[in-house]
Amino acid sequence: DPIDASTPTNPQLDYGRAKVEAEDRLDQMAQRSGMRFAAIRLPHVYGARDLFFSSIPRRRTLIPGRGRNLFAHLHVNDAARVLIGVAESDVEGARAVADRRATTWPEFFAILSEHYPRFRYVLLPAGLARAGTIVLRPFQRISGKPTITTAGSVVGWNLNLSVRPGLLWEELGMEPVYPTVDEGIPAVLDGCVAFRWLHPLDDRSS
To answer: Which pLDDT does position 78 carry in this prediction?
Structure first.
């Protein structure tokens, strides 16, 4: 079922558990000091300069799992708008947010392929992908570069994480500029061209 305001918190990864613990600690500190505290739980935030999109032209993208799970998304511009909106409002507590339609990963990639036909991806069995991340870990540490190919990311890619449409947006009196990936992905590809497909850490132009 889509996540809504009544969904209990049940993180599946150490990353998620650490974030929930941080939320609890910060909430306690805020209560003692009389401050307002809000934690915004973002879905898959995508944009022109993230690791996934900046890697698209170089190789086939390996996707761990069958891709049948529903995943919520949010364009990076809308994620920034939500954070600013919450900061300027009286919203409190931990809140989930996303755009108006969750998709499976093959649906996401089909839209990407429609606008960028050179995009190719390969679905790997999740178990094989997890084993691959263990083999690659020493090389990733040596390179020191950021990566999305970790054991945790394999688990995360295969979770069912959809969010009720309008959650938090309605409370803020706002609407996403990119309500679905149908509008968001073409905008990201335009940005990719403008940034020459470079991740910020690889951009030496400034």
So the answer is: 98
